[in-house]
UniProtKB/TrEMBL annotation:
InterPro entries: E_motif (IPR046848), PPR_At4g14850-like_plant (IPR046960), PPR_rpt (IPR002885), TPR-like_helical_dom_sf (IPR011990). PROSITE patterns: PPR (PS51375). PPR repeats lie at residues 144-181, 248-282, 351-385, 452-486, 553-587. It comes from the Eukaryota. GO terms for biological process: plant organ development; RNA modification. Keywords: Repeat. It holds the Pfam family PPR_2. This is DYW domain-containing protein. The keyword Methyltransferase does not apply. The keyword 4Fe-4S does not apply. GO terms for molecular function: RNA binding.
Length: 787
């Protein structure tokens, strides 16, 4: 009699000969049910051997001593071997070998079988050839749950919006055919729904889980939890988490990450503390530690981060590279680069993520040059960077305007094959946009078919920063057309574009969009709205938004102070500044530009001096060119031109042409020709290329009777190729912007416009008004023609 252990060995040997070496896998399970060995005379099998009698026994009835590999495998054996090979090639992502197996399947005529077709769908899906996998799937006549799972899982693991939407469509088709999903189906659906940041179909799948009594499968429950957390429905995720009968470390890390990504640090710490009490000793607990460390992203949490660091040392978890990387990232985000560098230097087994964490840490803490140098070290060390490393160093180049180095990184990125990666392309677009290379930024944007909100926002912000506000608004409309939901930075940039164009009606529509998308009046939306209404002259609406803005920061106060200042309500601007100080908000350099400008418009010279001195004396702010310009304007408007000249000459900063230009204009207005000539000659010596400088100086010399000097200035203007910039104005009427340029006759209603101007001019003359021609805008030889 053969004992049980020997019988198990015989069974394993027979399975190996029939099905091939290694794991049989999902697709050979159906054949296992028919496997049996007939008893031969004198060979008794114990009942608990687990081998059932079956007609297939004829193939397996071989004397034990005679078990040898056959030279010509039977059709069943060959079919099973091909299935095993497909499974193996799928796991190894070996597309070349998988295609060879596909060819053998076609040659044997078994490609139409459901099991083989499922194996082929799984192969091509895992190798990233989703169109081919989908084509084979569509050709399957009798699809089973494995067929659907293979394709759904392939699209789900591929990621991206398009693939995730396809998963939703496949799941709906599956249910329409009354095919009941299993745990693998639901996990794929939940993962795709997480990529979409939605929970619509996920809730339906949740109801199906309850209906099928599948709740309790830890794989399904954890996927469902991840879906709710990534959709921002953390409270629903917590309900799922609380009801789960079993939890593993992945479940705990998913729950902690759900709170961490929403910035809810306290809740993340509570879940982590609960984990420490229940499952701290688990061998793979580093995932949970990594998740909780990712939530500590502010300087106030650095002490808590150190405590968690101590627990990792105590539990011996620093052997995990991922945890070391998380500690580097945590210290960097908590603005403690010293500790981050120590952690980085102590990591003997650094990978690309470790380098990326340190590069990004330098970049986010304003040490962009150090980030570029560290990347150079990484390159010299022969470490291949990841996409995220490239993103970090591109952001560093963007911050310090290293456009040439950025272009070299672009070339390296192409060499690494990251040109179609979303994060890398977004960083490229942002770098080119900030450098003013909008054409290159647009090329990067157009090369991607699937664009997320970050990519759209980068290009929109780039257009706004480079004063191409019309194109920014056109791009925003395109974003809305494609169904991309904007975020707060998007709306802030669009509102800034509306402010620059002074398009109040369009700004009100964008305000409506912010309400529709659920954005409150917190920074940056509140301050952007206040600025938009103020610049469009609608101060009451701007002030109303400002008063309703919660937790006002210095940007919010600056927006409203600037609005009052630039709309001639300087007293209210100064009152608001005093209120700002009373509420404990510390001003910045922009605040002082606004209040000194308000003093300038109101003629408060002494008060302006007081605020200028307050910058350095009380708040430790070093005056910049803008502050000096406001002071020169303040003195000039008050007629204190001599004091303004002395102030300019005593300035301790490099102000270029700015201050002398203000003084020149003031001298012309007050008729101080000698001082104006002095300021004008200073501008000539500094190489001014602005037409207004030449025109004003020539006019001053003409007024002094110094024709030779006037002719010299006109000659210099022509020799330097300086020409007057063409004036331009526009008006928004009935949702259409009408642009008028000096000398342009291309407007479709130019004749009607000229008629109206002529009619109003006659009416003004009849009522006693006179036309004033500003000689500063008339070049030599120009004549005023009245028609």
């Amino acid at each position: 009699m053969i004992k049980a252990p020997a019988m198990k060995a015989i069974k394993k040997k027979i399975e190996k000969n029939i099905y091939g070496v290694g794991s049989i896998g999902l697709y050979t399970e159906l054949y296992r049910e028919g496997l049996a060995i007939r008893q031969k005379p004198g060979l008794e099998l114990e009942q608990h051997s687990g081998l059932d009698k079956s007609p297939l026994g004829k193939q397996c009835y071989i004397p034990i001593k005679a078990i040898q590999p056959t030279t010509e495998p039977s059709p069943m054996t060959q079919s099973s071997t091909l299935l095993s090979q497909l499974t193996h090639h799928s796991q190894q992502r070996n597309l070349v070998a998988g295609r060879a197996a596909h060819a053998r399947i076609i040659r044997t005529g078994t490609s139409t079988g459901t099991h083989h077709a499922n194996g082929l769908v799984n192969l091509y899906a895992k190798c990233g050839h989703l169109p081919k996998a989908h084509s084979i799937f569509n050709a399957i006549i009798s699809k089973d749950v494995v067929s659907w799972n293979s394709l759904i899982t392939g699209y789900s693991q591929n990621g991206g919006l398009s693939s995730s939407r396809t998963v939703m469509q496949l799941f709906q088709e599956m249910r329409a055919q009354n095919m009941l999903p299993n745990a693998y189906t639901l996990a794929g659906v939940y993962k795709a729904e997480s990529s979409l940041g939605s929970a619509t179909v996920g809730r339906q799948a949740h109801a199906l889980v309850i209906k099928m009594s599948s709740f309790g499968d830890i794989y399904v429950d954890t996927s469902m939890l991840g879906m709710y957390c990534k959709a921002g429905l953390v409270e629903d995720g917590l309900k799922v988490f609380a009801l789960m009968p079993n939890r593993n470390t992945h479940t705990w890390s998913t729950m902690v990450s759900g709170y961490a990504t929403r910035g809810r640090v306290e809740e993340a710490i509570k879940i982590f503390s609960l984990f420490l009490r229940e499952k701290e000793e688990e061998s793979d607990s580093d995932y949970v530690f990594t998740a909780v460390l990712s939530s500590l992203a502010a300087n106030e949490y650095v002490g808590l981060g150190r405590q968690i660091h101590c627990i990792t040392v105590k539990n011996g978890l620093l052997q995990f590279v991922a945890l070391k990387n998380a500690l580097v990232t945590m210290y960097s985000k908590c603005e403690n680069l010293t500790e981050a560098c120590k952690m980085f230097d102590s990591s003997g087994d650094r990978n690309s993520i470790t380098w990326s964490a340190m590069v990004t840490g330098y970049s986010q803490n304003g040490e962009s040059l150090e980030a570029v140098r560290l990347f150079s070290r990484m390159f010299s060390a022969g470490v291949k960077p990841s996409e995220y490393t490239i993103v970090g160093v591109l952001n560093a180049c963007s911050d310090i305007c290293y456009i040439e180095e950025g272009k070299q990184l672009h070339s390296y990125l192409l060499k690494l094959g990251f040109e179609r990666h979303l994060f890398a392309t977004t960083a490229l677009v942002d770098m080119y946009a900030k450098a003013g290379c909008l054409a290159d930024a647009r090329k990067g944007f157009d090369c991607l078919q699937e664009r997320d909100v970050a990519l759209w926002t980068s290009l929109i912000s780039g257009y706004v920063q480079n004063s191409d506000n019309e194109e920014a608004l056109i791009l925003y409309c395109g974003m809305k057309t494609e169904g991309i939901v904007p975020n707060e930075p998007t709306m802030a940039s669009v509102l800034k574009a509306c402010s620059s164009l002074a398009t109040l009606e369009l700004g009100k529509q964008v305000h409506g969009h912010t309400i529709k998308h659920g954005f409150g009046l917190e920074v940056p939306i509140g301050s952007a709205l206040s600025t938009m209404y103020s610049k469009c002259g609608s101060l009451e609406e701007g002030n109303l938004v400002f008063r309703r803005t919660p937790n006002k920061d210095v940007v919010s106060w600056n927006a409203m102070i600037s609005g009052f200042s630039h709309n001639g309500r300087g007293d209210e601007a100064l009152e608001l500044f005093e209120q700002m100080l009373a509420e404990g908000t510390e001003p910045d350099d922009v605040t002082f530009v606004n209040i000194i400008s308000a003093c300038s418009h109101k003629g408060f010279v002494e008060r302006g001096w007081s605020y200028f001195n307050m910058m350095s004396d009380l708040f430790g702010l070093v005056p910049k060119v803008d502050h000096y310009a406001c002071m020169v304007d303040l003195l000039s408007r008050a007629g204190q031109l001599k004091e303004a000249k002395e102030f300019i000459e005593s300035a301790s900063i490099d102000h270029g042409l700015c201050l002398w230009r203000i003084l020149l204009s003031a001298c012309k207005n007050y008729g101080k020709c000698e001082l104006g000539a002095y300021a004008g000659e200073k501008l000539m010596a500094l190489g001014s290329r602005e037409s207004s400088t030449y025109v004003q100086l020539a006019t001053i010399y003409a007024g002094l009777g110094r024709k030779r000097d006037a002719e010299r200035v006109w000659g210099l203007m022509r020799a330097n190729g300086v020409s007057k910039e063409v004036g331009c104005s526009w008006i928004d009427l009935k949702n259409q912007v009408h642009v008028f340029v000096v000398g342009d006759t291309m407007h479709p209603m130019i004749e009607e416009t000229k008629y109206l101007i002529s009619m109003f001019s006659r009416q003004m003359l009849e009522e006693g008004y006179t036309t004033v021609l500003d000689s500063s805008y008339v070049e030599e030889g120009t004549q005023l023609v009245v028609s």
